[in-house]
Amino acid sequence: MALQTCRLLLSKANLLLLVSLCVAVDGHFKGFRKFFRVQYGSLEEQWFTQKLDHFCSADSRVWKQRYFVNEAFYKPGGPVFLMIGGEGPANPAWMMNGTWLNYAEKFGALCLMLEHRFYGRSNPTPDLSTDNLRYLSSRQALADLAHFRTVIGEERGLNNRKWVAFGGSYPGSLAAWFRLKYPHLVHASVATSAPVYATVNFPEYLEVVWRSLASENTECPLLVKKASDTLVERLKDPKTYDNITKDFNLCSSLQIQTEMDSAYFLETLAGNFMDVVQYNEDNRGFEGVVGTNITIKVLCGVMGDTSLGDPYARYAAVARLMMDTFFMKCLDANYSTYLRDMTNASWYGLAAGGGRQWVYQTCTEFGFYQSTDSPNQPFAGFPLVYHVKQCADFYNVNADQVAEAVAQTNEYYGGYDIRSTRIVLPNGSIDPWHALGITKDITPDLPAVFIKGTAHCANMYPARKEDLPQLVLARDHVFLLLQQWLKQ
Ligand SMILES: *[C@@H]1O[C@H](CO)[C@@H](O)[C@H](O)[C@H]1NC(C)=O
Ligand SMILES: *[C@@H]1O[C@H](CO)[C@@H](O)[C@H](O)[C@H]1NC(C)=O
Ligand SMILES: *[C@@H]1O[C@H](CO)[C@@H](O)[C@H](O)[C@H]1NC(C)=O
Ligand SMILES: *[C@@H]1O[C@H](CO)[C@@H](O)[C@H](O)[C@H]1NC(C)=O
Ligand SMILES: *[C@@H]1O[C@H](CO)[C@@H](O)[C@H](O)[C@H]1NC(C)=O
Ligand SMILES: CC(=O)N[C@H]1CO[C@H](CO)[C@@H](O)[C@@H]1O
């Protein structure tokens, strides 16, 4: 989100706070542009004229889409690398760091990054009203990519160059689908941590969270479960609310009026673990992301620290650690506030960083709801109905419509059944998203690259000396595939 190229899909409750996919929020990068100018001369943001609705020829409205170019590595005759933006602002940090640039250097590639419509500064409509969000979809985004590819190819004389698409998380799926749907425009794709299968209910996410916590310490998820169960039990008795308010440092005294209130509160707390697991030890610091030193090891350390009291007290200590890390004075776990922010259609609203847009895409295309509906996971209290109800609350989309939209998405893209060539699909074993990814080679031309022990999009981040040997190998593996494919 995130995803941007790859934050994607964190728990929704934290979207308001943390949106920044694999290519994260550019707001963190003050002074960044200045540095760019010095380094490369031409890394300013640029604007591309795009149609609002690619599927209605009668609609001639256009808007400006943001993109970035890095020509530093380009050698005439080289390929063109296109980084696909996702569910958050495109972060120009990716034009300066990232594994794809190492590849670009070796292949003499021109590097482009296109921001996704409706995210960051690529704002096609005057606001984010539900009516305007009709133009937000992966299909429109792919059509944007196709038109961008065609026009830039003509303008810069790059039509007969080989184009390679890159993306992580939701943009990873877009990278695979771009090759699938527009094979004449893109020669190969690197689709990292791509959830290619849409599903309304996604309880497997929290199952992987259990396993990833257990891989640190088998006790850890059991302690989390104990804490979470205690909390759920206490929530049944309003006399405990004053204590809970203090324990979790809530911004206003806890009131539970509806199931949505308790579910939102419980999901927010679980989100601390979900986000840390999803990004565990990823090298995201270069994007300006804070809190990268909070790892599974740190959280399990707190959960195992008996000096802090019972598991419930340690769970509260984790929440306070996260607040300190993200400079939050208190925890706002109020569904009414969330509802108010998520329904604000202004580009200046608190959810316009991507939360309102991304949840709309889940309601109208993907589902992906990280529910507590499986018994084999540590949390409780935010079932599928809670997630789906938000579609109605925020966009007036009902449960049947969500189910139908998700089925259509799989019908349109094929889900796991990808029929194409030259798409590599790396996955990380502790990333909860791998459960919807491609985990086995489909054909020799559609290989999966499995990276044991790494999290979401790990192979995209800049290399560093602490990287696991299998991560280094995975990066080399992708390089060798590209080398082979660029000769074809
Ligand atoms: C609130 O916490 C205090 C101090 O730990 C404890 O004595 C009291 O019983 C708790 N109140 C309720 C209603 O659980
Ligand atoms: C949540 O926020 C709403 C409006 O913003 C307010 O009326 C309500 O009292 C708050 N509830 C809690 C539990 O803080
Ligand atoms: C990012 O790239 C710049 C310029 O090449 C370099 O100076 C910097 O050390 C890199 N940062 C990271 C985190 O790799
Ligand atoms: C993480 O880093 C921040 C900033 O450097 C530091 O203040 C904090 O204590 C660190 N937290 C942990 C758990 O290491
Ligand atoms: C939406 O957010 C903007 C920016 O924060 C604010 O000015 C506006 O009043 C909000 N609108 C509503 C209806 O709350
Ligand atoms: C965790 C996971 O699903 N990993 C899979 C990633 O892809 C490889 C194939 O390269 C599978 O063997 C792994 O099981």
Element-level helix/strand string: HHEEEHEHEHEEHHHHHHHHEHHEEH
Domains (count):
2
Q: Please tell me what the overall shape is.
A: globular
Mean pLDDT: 87
- Give the strand order of the largest sheet, numbering strands 1, 2, ... along the chain: 1-2-4-3-5-6-9-10
> Which oligomerization state do the chains in this entry correspond to?
single chain
**Residue share in helix:** 40-55%
Q: Given the helix and strand composition, which structural class is it?
A: alpha/beta
Largest sheet: 8 strands, mixed
CATH topology of the largest domain: Rossmann fold
Would you count the extended β strands for me?
Answer: 10
The end-to-end distance, rounded to whole angstroms, is 33 Å
Rg, nearest Å: 22 Å
